[in-house]
Structure formats: C-alpha cells, structure tokens
Write a structure and sequence with these properties.
By secondary structure, this protein is α+β, with helices and mostly antiparallel strands. 46% of the residues lie in helices and 12% in strands. The chain is built from eleven helices and five strands, in the order αααββααααββααααβ. Helix 1 crosses helix 3, helix 5 crosses helix 9 and helix 9 packs across helix 10. It is globular, with a radius of gyration of 20 Å. One of its GO terms (biological process) is chromosome separation.
C-alpha cells in the first residue's frame, strides 16, 4: 500500500469514526507494513491538509479525531440551538477538586469545600463518565478513591492531566472548568477568554497552594477488585 492510499484510507476511517481512534486501531486498519512512526507521519500530513478547513484533526486522551474548529461553533448552533447541560456550582467544584487533587475520597472533597458532598453530585459525575472509583484508601471505613476518566479528558480536548491549567485555588479551577464545559471550547481558547491561568511563580512550578488542602497521607491505595465472570 502506497502512502497516498494509506492516507486516504486513514482519513476516511477517522471521518467516519464515532469515537477517537487509537494508533493501535490504525495499525490494524493499514496492516502490519505500517509502523507507528509511519502512521504518525500520515497524521501530521492530514493535520496540514485540513489546516485551512472548518474541521481539524486533533489528538486527545483516547486517540485521534476530527472535530469542528471553535470559530465554527456559532454556526453549528444555528442547526442545534439547544444548550449543553448546565451544572451547578457545587458539581463543578467537586469535579475541579477531583481533577486537580486526585485520587481523593469524599472526605477529602468535603474538607476542601467545607460542606457535605451530596451523593447525587458524585453519581451525576459518574453517570456523565467524568469520574470513576479507582480503589479504596486503606484506612478506617475504606473510603472510595475518585479520579477523572479518559472520557473527561476527551471532552475537554486534552491528552493528559498535565494540560490542565496551573491554578492556585478551587474557585479558579472551578471557573476554568465551567468555562471549558459551558462554552465547549478547546482548552487554550477557553482559558484565553477567561484569563484564569495564575501567574504566581509557585503555580507555574506545579504547586497548588489551596486553602483547607487535605493531607492525602501515606495510606496505601487498595485497588478495586476486577469483576470475575
């Protein structure tokens, strides 16, 4: 298979895919003759080919996908004027704490927020596919440990948690997530619009000086047992 054919096949598969496509699936698509390095080169060529169009090819947590560019959103909304689901401040605060301090227990979240966390809030985030239980803290009561999912990263257009903005307080993190989720913009554009990135030196070094920050302690994490058939 020559390069032109491979690129056309890959482009078609990506345009028709319902979910981001991982590179391992692309290797199955193109055959064993195509190594990962060769597929990466095809992806970069496709990105260049689509650089002046309304769609863009992007890499997210679970693979590669085509998506509309942010400046096209206002026109697409004319066809589908319904607004995305709105989340309460409490829900976004909970999500922000999990995203920035994971893994955390319900008690950790309550310590940071200073109020009790409603079970329905956690269930809503789990049902949305943004958080999951990854284990239990080996302490009294074995509380569940929550973390964000790869689906959460995909919805924000991110490859990893390292791409979250460096912020110094829960309110800043909550406002940033609200901007990203409410406007459905890629990370860079939403942060540019909201100007929530901290310029504090400690923040740029990756240190989060959150008040009421719970001490995660040294208790080991007990993994969730896998389901058995």
């Amino acid at each position: 298979m020559n390069t032109a054919d491979a690129k056309r096949i890959l482009e078609t598969a990506l345009l028709c895919a319902q979910q981001p496509m991982p590179v391992k699936d692309m290797r199955i698509l193109l055959g064993d003759d195509w190594a990962t390095s060769g597929i990466d080169a095809l992806l970069f060529e496709l990105q260049a080919d689509w650089s002046e169009r309304g769609l863009e090819l992007v890499s997210v947590s679970t693979g590669w996908r085509f998506q509309s560019r942010p400046d096209m959103q206002v026109y697409l909304e004319r066809l589908h004027p319904e607004k995305p689901p709105r989340y309460t401040r409490a829900t976004l605060e909970t999500l922000a704490i999990i995203a920035y301090k994971q893994p955390v227990t319900r008690g950790d979240i309550e310590t940071v927020r200073g109020v009790t966390v409603n079970s329905l809030t956690l269930k809503q985030l789990e049902d949305r596919g943004w958080i999951e239980t990854i284990g239990h803290r080996d302490t009294v009561g074995r509380p569940a440990l929550f973390a964000t999912t790869r689906h959460f990263l995909d919805d924000l257009g991110l490859n990893s948690l390292d791409q979250l903005p460096l912020l110094t307080s829960p309110p800043q993190a909550t406002d940033a997530l609200e901007s990203m989720l409410g406007q459905e913009l890629p990370l860079a554009d939403s942060l540019k619009a909201a100007s929530f990135v901290s310029t504090d030196a400690s923040s740029r070094n990756g240190e989060l000086n959150w008040s009421n920050d719970p001490d995660p302690g040294t208790s080991p994490i007990e993994p969730v047992p896998e389901d058995t058939p």
